[in-house]
Amino acid sequence: MGQSPRSKLSLFVLFFAGILLLIFLNERGFLNSTKNALLTVSVPLQNVSALAADKVNYFGQALWEIKNIKEENEKFSSENLELKGVVSGLEEIKRENDFLRQQLGLEEKPDDVLILAGVIGRDPLTFGRAILIDKGARDGIREKTAVISAGNILVGQIIEVYENSAKVRLLTDISSKVPALTQDSRMDGLIKGDGTASLTMDLISKEKELAVGERAISSGLEGIYPKGLLIGEVEEVFSADNQFFQKAKIKAAVDFQNLESVLVLKKQ
């Protein structure tokens, strides 16, 4: 059942009277002790709440800064990788420029053109005695042209040409034969490959004594190799009384296993 109008009026009168009583007691100072007790309890709670809020704000700011630092580190790492790539490319360009600069000692011939080529592989069928280069018919490469290395050193000749590459037969191949000349004693001979890192100079006249350490160069008699290209040095001399000629073991001037770039002597 609902309350009667008289009961509602009684409650309102009591509520209003209570408010008036609290106002009267507050003005007379009777509630000061109660207010002090409430402040004593509430102030520390407010301080704790404020400190907790500060900690939360600081933690949130720290997380934001960590996120920014991480993003900046990722950006710097990416830029660092790009810079490393640029530096690597510049080093390769410098290496090629140094390589070409070393070739300036080559005797200048107006009919010859030097084509720089990179070594891209080795022919497994020749057991490393032939290499593949990244220049071919499109670049004007032709068969039976000489190939040299840094320092005016003979490497071999072009034996097969493809559209974008070519095969170079090295001096160490057993089918390689180069007319040669000893630089000091001026004795002719024929340098052959024996399938190893060494070369053999055969058909050397016995008119003069051949000295160990003497250089062997191309004589230019065959027509493929220009005269004066360094081949190697005399490492050992073989001469028998019952033979008309003497032989010499030649240490190649170039490391065929570590060739990275070569020059093709293209004739116009």
Describe it for me?
The protein folds into two domains: 32-105; 112-267, Thrombin, subunit H. By secondary structure, the chain is an alpha+beta fold. The strands form two sheets. It has a six-stranded antiparallel β-barrel. β6 (177-182) and β7 form a beta hairpin. 22% of the residues are buried. The longest helix is centred in the first third of the chain and has 71 residues, at 32-102. The chain has two helices and twelve strands, in the order ααββββββββββββ. It has helices spanning 5-27, 32-102; strands spanning 112-122, 130-133, 146-149, 153-161, 166-170, 177-182, 188-193, 198-205, 215-218, 230-238, 245-252, 261-267. The model has no long low-confidence stretch (mean pLDDT 78). Involved in formation and maintenance of cell shape. Keywords: Cell shape, Membrane, Transmembrane, Transmembrane helix. Belongs to the MreC family. This is Cell shape-determining protein MreC. It comes from Candidatus Azambacteria bacterium GW2011_GWA2_45_90.
Present the secondary structure layout.
Blueprint: H1 5-27, H2 32-102, E1 112-122, E2 130-133, E3 146-149, E4 153-161, E5 166-170, E6 177-182, E7 188-193, E8 198-205, E9 215-218, E10 230-238, E11 245-252, E12 261-267
Antiparallel strand pairs: 1-2, 1-12, 2-5, 3-4, 3-12, 4-5, 6-7, 6-9, 7-8, 8-11, 9-10, 10-11
Transmembrane segments: 9-25
Function: Involved in formation and maintenance of cell shape.
GO cellular component, one term: plasma membrane
